[in-house]
Design goal:
- The chain is of the alpha+beta class.
- It has a single domain, classed as Reverse transcriptase/Diguanylate cyclase domain (Alpha-Beta Plaits, 2-Layer Sandwich).
- 34% of the residues lie in helices and 20% in strands.
- It has a two-stranded antiparallel ribbon with strand order 1-2. Strands 3-4 form a two-stranded antiparallel ribbon.
- The longest helix has 17 residues.
- It catalyses: 2 GTP = 3',3'-c-di-GMP + 2 diphosphate.
- GO terms for molecular function: diguanylate cyclase activity.
């Protein structure tokens, strides 16, 4: 299992997803994100009209809610910047935002 029963995943844009992890520290969130990354990398996706399979990877940006966050956009912005950094580092990475 990659997410816990009380975590809330959802689609957040075209090919972006979000997961709300209540009561979770930055280190715990990184551990959960790494579990998700590892699980995705083990998937084999069948190609349409072919017997071939393809593997996929995922890059993840992680951010914590901090007391100065007055709007949801603040934490989303930090997670998005961490995601960009993960992609710049070569993809298939997990990065904790500032």
């Amino acid at each position: 299992m990659t997410l816990r029963d009380y975590d809330t995943p959802g689609r957040f844009g075209g090919e972006e997803f979000i997961a709300i992890l209540p009561g979770t520290s930055g280190e715990q969130a990184l551990t959960i994100a790494e579990r998700v990354r590892a699980a995705v990398s083990k998937l084999e996706i069948g190609l349409e009209n072919s017997s071939q399979v393809s593997n996929v990877t995922v890059s993840l940006g992680v951010a914590n809610l901090v007391p100065t966050d007055s709007k949801a956009e603040s934490i989303i912005d930090r997670a998005d910047k961490a995601l960009l950094k993960a992609k710049q580092m070569g993809r298939n990475q997990v990065v904790l935002g500032d």
